[in-house]
Amino acid sequence: MNVREVHSQRSKGKAGEAAAADYLKRNGYEILEQNYFFHHGEIDIIAKEGKTLVFVEVKSRQSTVFGEPEESVTPKKQELIRRTAEGYVLEKNIGEIDCRFDVVSVMLKDGKANCKVLKDCF
């Protein structure tokens, strides 16, 4: 991958994350943090829906040639997100709270983003 491709991929990812955050807000989520890092892991969006703490992975694509965006959340990625979420709960000293893991699938096409939320994915 050359530098231009990396920059393009990053800007597509950022566009997908921005679209996902807007979509979640419009659908009743309260965004607490974006791009939270803990050790070697990152969580794209941390939000609350009602009384539930939600850790959100955002996956964006421009086509389904390689499958739906959410299909790229592998078991290895899920485990990394879980460990990062545990770090968040410890770091923020959060007591007992219901938590779940959602994936927002974003299809970017013709300057528009089509989002869908898959709740409690793993």
**The CATH topology, please?**
Trna Endonuclease, Chain: A, domain 1
The CATH architecture can be named as 3-Layer(aba) Sandwich
Mean pLDDT: 91
Proportion of residues in extended strands: 35-45%
Shape verdict: globular
Computed structural class: alpha+beta
Record the strand order, biggest sheet.
1-2-3-4-5
Describe the model.
With 122 residues, the protein is α+β, with helices and mostly antiparallel strands. It has one domain: Trna Endonuclease, Chain: A, domain 1, CATH 3.40.1350.10. The chain has helices at 3-26, 75-91; strands at residues 30-38, 41-49, 52-61, 99-109, 112-118. It has a 5-stranded mixed sheet. The longest helix is centred in the N-terminal third of the chain and has 24 residues, at 3-26.
Considering the chains and any ligands shown, give keywords for the structure:
single chain; 122 residues; alpha+beta; Trna Endonuclease, Chain: A, domain 1; five-stranded mixed sheet; 38% strand; disordered N terminus
Entry summary:
By secondary structure, the chain is an alpha+beta fold. The chain has helices spanning 3-26, 75-91, and strands at residues 30-38, 41-49, 52-61, 99-109, 112-118.
Which helices and strands appear, and what pairs or packs with what?
Elements lengths: L2 H24 L3 E9 L2 E9 L2 E10 L13 H17 L7 E11 L2 E7 L4
Parallel strand pairs: 3-4
Antiparallel strand pairs: 1-2, 2-3, 4-5
